[in-house]
Amino acid sequence: MAIGTITLASIALAGGGISALGQFQEGQAQARGEEFNASVARQEQAIIDAKRKVERKTERRSKERFISAQAANFAKAGVALTGSPLDVMEDSTANLELDIILNDISASIQRSRLESEVEQSKIQAARARAAGTTRAGLTLLEAGVEFASDTNLFKKKEGD
């Protein structure tokens, strides 16, 4: 009968080991998922940077064309580029430059949001790894205690 009890307890212990392995692997898989999310956010940051660089260049060219067209229209109308016409061109330039700056700020905000996602994903990955390892350890501990209990491993023998 003692062999049957030990056999059953050993099977339960092995089952605890398999369960612990699964919990550990689950934590590792969750961590890899979070690391992937961080990688995607980093790629999005690079895309935002590249896109903003192209947009800024395009915006500056558009600004230059607009100011040149404005100057040409004033000249075509016979208006000297002094006084009010010059003030209008300076205001136009300032407004267009402000638009470029606001677009830069918007891109910077998007980039910061993505940086937060990266950091959050890293934290979640570390937590998932730790949780998987902890769950696995607890399962092994529980299986070991159950094995010891089932086999009377820690029971005092008479004369001890």
Secondary structure layout:
Blueprint: H1 2-76, H2 84-150
Characterization of the model:
The protein is an all-alpha fold and 160 residues long. The chain has one domain. 89% of the residues lie in helices and 0% in strands. It is built from 2 helices and no strands. The mean pLDDT is 89.
Offer a concise description of the structure.
By secondary structure, this protein is mostly helical. It has helices at residues 2-76, 84-150.
The outline comes out as rod-shaped
- Total number of domains: 1
- Radius of gyration equals 35 Å
Number of separate helices: 2
Helix content: over 70%
Q: How large is the share of residues in beta strands?
A: under 5%
Q: What is the oligomeric state here? A: single chain
Topology as H/E string?
HH
> Could you tell me the number of beta strands?
0
Please give the alpha-carbon distance between the first and last residues.
24 Å
What is the SS-derived class?
A: mainly alpha
Mean pLDDT value: 89
Low-confidence parts, pLDDT < 50 over ≥5 residues?
none
| Biggest sheet character | none
